[in-house]
């Protein structure tokens, strides 16, 4: 591979991770915020489709996603132990996961490292989205009295986000454990 192609290959996973784990949950939370705050006709009237607005929206989505990441980590932290307990696997932490990904890259197992990185981005996405939905629910309760239907919808959305965050973490940890076991077997 040529040097520019190699440099591009190094940048794409980081960009992809940011896109999945930051822009998507930030954009979803931003959209839900406007959906909760504006009536459907107002939302349509305020929608601007210029490229500038799109770039501004992407930037805002990224920043919101970036700010949600630590809160998402707090939401998702119990899942590391819960997954280990329910799946009967050793407890893994974010640090051990990223050490494993780095080790796979050093051992020229880029495809497996890329899969785990993508799965980690998806887990971060679900945790950040869960944190965002919880924040929006709290904001709705503090600033107005949402209708009972809105409250039920937000509670269901929160529950679905929590379940999805657990599921993504379970799949990630299971896959990481499987890759680690295969890697140890291959070294023996």
Write the topology of this structure:
Blueprint: H1 3-37, H2 40-46, H3 51-87, H4 94-106, H5 110-143, H6 148-187
Largest sheet: none
Summing up helix and strand content along with how strands pair, one would put the structural category as mainly alpha
Estimate the global geometry from the Cα principal axes: flat
What is the percentage of strand-forming residues?
under 5%
Q: From the alpha-carbon coordinates, what is the Rg to the nearest angstrom?
A: 19 Å
Low-confidence stretches: none
The SSE string, one letter per element, is HHHHHH
* Estimated helix fraction: over 70%
The oligomerization state is single chain
CA-to-CA gap between the ends?
31 Å
**Number of helical runs?**
6
Q: What's the pLDDT, averaged over the residues?
A: 78
Strands, total number: 0
What do you see in this structure?
The protein has 188 residues and is mainly α. The protein contains 6 helices and no strands. It has helices spanning 3-37, 40-46, 51-87, 94-106, 110-143, 148-187. The longest helix has 40 residues, at 148-187. The protein starts with a helix and ends with a helix. The relative contact order is 0.14.
